[in-house]
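Handout, section B. The chain below has 331 residues.
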Amino acid sequence: MNVHLPDAERKHRAFLGERWYIDKRNAGLSRFALAITALNILGHLFLGFEQSWLTPFVALAAAYSTEFIAETVAAYGEGRRARYRGGLGRTVSFFLSAHISGLAVGMLLFAAEQLWIIAFAASMAIGSKWIFRVRIANVDGTSTERHFLNPSNFGITVALLLFPSVGIAPPYMFAENIVGIWDWLLPLAVIMTGSLLNTKLTGRMPLIGAWLAAFAAQAILRSTVNGTPVAAALLPMTGFAFVLFTFYMITDPGTTPSRPRGQAAFAAAVAVAYGVLMELHIVFGLFYALTIVTALRGLLLQTRFLMARARQTERVAAHSTTGIPIERELV
């Protein structure tokens, strides 16, 4: 066990694990950023996006500025160097997450010309990473704070709840201006690139498989109970928006479990929440369901950490009373 390793070796292994996480995270973020940037450009030029050209730029400006201000304040308060400093590479790497969230909000929300709502939603998306955080135990015995809400999804959810005049971009706009074989090639390209990305970098293919199976299962169950056509309940799975949600939204590695079993449980929970919302006739169920499940997962993670810390405190107290080394108690 790690408790028997020298302190230097434990720190070295922890550093290697963190370095692996950072490198893989940056690779995934850079490819996500490239994919969503290309989709936005193609969408406004050819596909039929109905938002104005100004929308993505407003969303990006809000996301960038919120991330910059939050990091600057945090760095000053903690007495450290801001993570966007240290060269162009570090700056670009730092803003990748904000870039993805900003474009996702601008692409998926439809607020007509109410651009201030787009800016608000993008800022809420980034702000959620700094406000809603839980503490996670590390392998070296320390702990770190991480956000647990899917940023883009949370920003969209808040905008939908607060502003009745705002809706989700119509699914047809992703393929409004293409016909023939392109109706097949475009979603196929998104599925292939999303599958490659989630296989090589995020490791979330078990989540995708479980999500598709659980969504189909709840659709069939609801149709059976309500006596409605199964095809109608399964119809959302054929839409381009559902494909994007499946491969680029629900698979966020920072807010989903890493182990396959946990991924399957997470995906099933989102599908169940969606089914319940549909039975209650609540629209925008995909986004609300994901927000609910990520929030509950954050509560669970925080509870686990507090329980683990309480057990550690008890062990320390027992050691001080009995004199038995903690290492022997952990074996």
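Note. Confidence is low (pLDDT under 50) at residues 1-21, 326-331. Compare this with the example in section A.
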